[in-house]
Amino acid sequence: METSLLINKLVECAKEIEGGHLNDADLLLEEIIAANESFSKPTKSLVKYYAEALVRRLYRLYPRNLTPLIPSGTDRFPETDYPFAPFFCFGDFTTLDPARDALKGKRRVHIIEFGIVVSYWRYCDLFRDITTHSTGPISFRLTFVGPILSTVADHTQKTLERLHGEAERFAIHFEGRRLVANSAADIVDSALKLTRASEDETIVVKWKFQFHKLLTLTGASEKVLSKLKEMKPEIMIIVEQDASHNGQNLLDWFSKSFQYYSIVFDSLEKDNLDFSFGGVRRKVLWEMYFRRQICKLVAPGGTDHIERHETFAHWQDRLRLFGFRHYRFKPKSFNNFCREQMPEYSWEEKDRHPVLTRKRIPLLFSSAWKPDPAQLNSGSDMELDTENYSNFHENQPDDPRIMTEEITWSEKCFSINQIAASAEIYDILEYTCNVHNLPLALTWISDRRDYIIVNSKRKLRIVESACYLNDVTMEGFVEACGKHHLEEGQGAAGKALQSNGMHFNPVVSELSVDDYPFVYHTWDFGLHAAVSFKLENIHMSRVDYVLEFFLPAETKEVSEHKLLIDGISSILQKNCRNSWVISGMESSDEVNMDSVVGSEGAIPVRSPPASLDNGSFNENGTIIASDAVNAADHGIQSGVQAHEQDVGEQNSRFEAASNGITQLSENFISQIMIEDLETNDAEPVGFSDSNFSINSSEFGKAYNIVPTAPCLDIEEVGGDSSHLNASTRKKRMRTSEVWKYFEEVRGNGEVWAICKSCSTRYRGESTNGTTNLHKHLKSCAGKK
């Protein structure tokens, strides 16, 4: 099937869904999914996300966090890693030059930025420029209006604090203020509360990829523009996507948007845009962002989960109407950067403003505007759409549930329901991993129709679109899992499938290859403990789902495991409402974590599995006012505070769990399988039998679980022991445990791995990976 035909079928599917012909739409989706496998990665991803967007539109499936969360599992700079590099750079540099010109020689400055992330380095550049052209003390106010990007950290506030420190170096009196604005209603509230400190204050307004949000609420743009004009800014700069994705005809802008994002996804795959350090592929983050944007673009009106874009011509007419005149500028700073760092992209001047293009397709525009004092303010009396304005505020993220309420699913549409299930799961995994700093969560499925033979083992395959990478360095692990299936009983996921319930394994990295085909990869990526939950979707009885959560490598105490597992299960129970059943428990039940975690004490370092037969599968006393959501003054609910409250509620449940809940809920109907660890004759120092017993003997008797008291061997490892347990939360360094069998020798700028048993040499640079080392161990004569 050709790409154009595939797009036509997607449009036809959208038409059938809009017309209510779900059976026909389901058949089309089935055909699209099958044909999509033969296309290139950019096309496959794009088709997959548009199909998901259509299903989300049908069932109203949207997460409560309106913007994709910044992964909390990787310690990096969100202002450079989170936004798509070409868009981020174009927005940064094209707003810098006109702001420089407007602030030259000024001593009292106020920048109001409506954006997604604060660009630390561009403000440092601005500090340097204004001190060069000004004499005497400088006062610099920055008000940032933007969305919540994390459930556990305030990245914007941290950047404002860093900027305060940098401003001190230039003897600048800096004041930073942060206002939370997740939706168009929040932007209106924030704008209406903005004030001018004095008549001699120079105000610059910057919009970076947020102006289009005003399209989603009737009267919003008029209210905001009228307020900003009253403040008499020196200049207002707007950076937006240059696309006509709006209007009443879904099918029209559905097709147009597909062509637009085809260019973006082609760039994601083919252009060398990863300017990151440490080899981390930021493309994973960018794809997450555009995936959400596409879903919001296809979403229906009447919800805050919508995205609409317009061309420069549209905004020019509207801005003129409300008293702003266009101001010409050329982005000198961006010109050199684009030519050197992004050769696939180019910019051109069109209608006196810069436009970013790729393959001659316009993607973004940047424009500068000045208030026209001769024109009266025509929007101050404009009324907001009060019904939708109220709905926006009702949908603030202060609810413990992750998902918005969905409508009833169609029982006969398997392909539609399968996509819906994956979408729901992905949203739950994103929230869960961010709240608990879990590096990774996988989704496995098993179709019962494939195993009609009696006693045949069921198999699990991964659903990549329903997996969540909270640590983007784990991308390779997900790719490895996607190449092979798991059998029933293998790993934590296979055990959960086998036991029809929940399964926890504190040391998946100690399993044999037969018990877990991806064990070598756990060494390479520093993964240790995993907990899996089996779920059933009431609309798809033939499919079993298993959610596998990997716990942070630094959490090794049994008490830490209890807190995390209790928190994860609590989130699942709150969100598995209409469509899901967690096998082995009712959604209202509390789970006894003492009975789940069967091995207390620290997880010791162990040698790798002996069996290699199956091969290698691999802060300042600042003046920063955190108005991050002054509810009394602004009427805006702080999502960060709300999330903290939610996490606080969960922590109270954690304490209950860690103090020992002595009974399982009556409806815990399935035996929880606890991984038996290998036993050895020698007992390591500091460990006793009681450390490894199940905490409740009555629980063991009632459920026929025999407590084992395994003794783990702790070997003295020669050579460079720094290779072991190198994974930490700050550094995120990972070294495979295979290195205990090799000496690392450095010389002449080269690194060699020399086998301790037979002295065979291999190149040992990190870029070469450890696959060859694993393979060598399989056949090493000296080791045998």
Automatic annotation (TrEMBL):
GO terms for molecular function: DNA binding; DNA-binding transcription factor activity; zinc ion binding. The keyword Zinc-finger applies. It comes from the Eukaryota. PROSITE patterns: GRAS, ZF_BED. Keywords: Metal-binding, Nucleus, Transcription, Transcription regulation, Zinc, Zinc-finger. SUPFAM superfamilies: beta-beta-alpha zinc fingers. Residues 733-784 form the BED-type domain. Pfam families: GAF_NLP (PF22922), GRAS (PF03514), zf-BED (PF02892). This is DELLA PROTEIN RGA2-LIKE. The lineage of its organism: Eukaryota, Viridiplantae, Streptophyta, Embryophyta, Tracheophyta.
